[in-house]
Write a structure and sequence with these properties.
By secondary structure, the chain is an all-alpha fold. The chain contains two helices and no strands.
């Protein structure tokens, strides 16, 4: 593996982890906001939660998926036996 590919894999792996955290945090906030609206019987909270957090959550999930694909492409190949 070249040094550039190794460095790129390290960067993509770190971004992948951040993407996972962002996707999880935004999704959790979205659901918690909607849940709070249901429990408090405030439909405007449910709508506001979806309005503010739906697009960022979907975007974070898409970026997370692309980073996973790129990270898999850049992943080091396993060493063969007998080397």
């Amino acid at each position: 593996m070249t040094a550039v590919k190794s460095r790129a894999f390290t960067v993509v792996r770190a971004l992948f982890k951040l993407g996972l955290l962002a996707c999880f945090a935004l999704g959790s906030l979205l659901v918690l906001g909607q849940l709070a609206g249901v429990v408090a019987q405030r439909p405007d909270w449910i709508t506001a939660s979806s309005t503010w957090l739906f697009v960022p959550t979907i975007t974070a999930a898409a970026v997370f998926g692309v980073l996973g694909y790129v990270g898999n492409y850049l992943a080091p190949e396993p060493a063969e036996e007998g080397e």
